[in-house]
Fold:
Amino acid sequence: MNINLTIIGQLLAFSVFVWFTMRFVWPPLSDALETRRRKIAEGLAAAERGQNEQRLAEERAKEVIKQAKQQAAEIIAAAQKRSNDMVEESKTTAREEGERIKEAAHADIEQEVNRAREQLRKQLAKLVVQGAEQILAKEIDAKVHGDLLKNLAKRL
Amino acid sequence: MASGNELPTMEEHIAHHLTNLTFGYHPETGLGFAMTSSEAAEMGFWAIHVDSMLWSIGLGILFILSFRVAARHATAGVPGGWQNFVEWIMDFVDENVRGSFKHKNDMVAPLALTIFVWVFLLNLMDLVPVDLIPYLAYLAGIPYMKIVPTTDVNVTVGLALGVFILIIYYSLKIKGPVGFIKELTGIPFQTSITVIKPIFWVINFVLETINLIAKPVSLALRLFGNLYAAEMIFILIGVMYSAGLVLGLVGGVLHVGWAIFHILVVPLQAFIFMVLTVVYIDMAYSEDH
Structure:
């Protein structure tokens, strides 16, 4: 068990090995570990962000669907109201039209009646005059008595 | 190995295992390898344990090169098998460093990694059958071959000395020379009486210096003691193999048992050396004890 130069030799060898490890071994590996740690952290953060965004998107989708439903309901209600109005309007129009046709028909009928009455009156007057002619024969002046009969016919 | 063609005695066998391959200048035989342990001792300080140096530097190079491979191909994507293994060790070391060292320093973590892996590899050599490589070396004409560098006190002292230099360096750097001297003299005894202060300073200085020096000494001797004792038991078990069939079988069982136990000792001692180094440097950084 001799103490000798080996101590110094070991000290030098030790120093060289420590220097080498410090210079060429530790930093690259340490960097790689650090980079990997950061990558993993970023990956996890991205995943979390993605989940968050998905949740937001889902919420937004729900909101949009709710709005669409509401709008659809409104549109349906408006359409129903509109169709009711249209039916009502057409009913009114139809009624008015009918009324007008009826009135026109009434007017036509009245006109026809008047005309028929006029004709009847003329025929009657003629018949009366003929009758009277026959009854009174030739003594009666057709002209004088014609006026008389015309007045009479007018009063009918 | 002085007994020529005869089988070595047990004492010689053990002594053979406890002697390093020493290269140095011997006063009588000149420059060369020591052929006996007494020759090695006579070479004094200016000799070097070639086996310790070769094995420790070889394993150190194995460590830095294999880790360098992982570092050069390091990717932030999916790591390959070797990179994954290296990262696992790095994470383990880094966690321990973060646990005991709270300051900003780019050197402590690589230092801890180097100590942990290197000392682990040095200790691991203890699991190689104790007679195998020395016998092969003996056949090749090499008189001694200790393959477990951490059973050589020079190796552990060399490591601890490196740590000690760092402790002193960071103490001076962080606290300044004045702060460092204050720390060495100001605690643990304190007084408000002016006359007694210098006496306390001296007492404190003695205590704190012992405290400071105890750090590398305990580091070096803990590692050395554990591995040396373990190696010694392996050697003694190895001796049983040559003592007949029954003892040989008992030795075989003991060998397996001790090797399994040693699997625990090998990483544990490397881990302790690393953690204590980190703690000592942390203490050098912190202002108060």
Summary: Residues 10-285 of chain B form one domain.
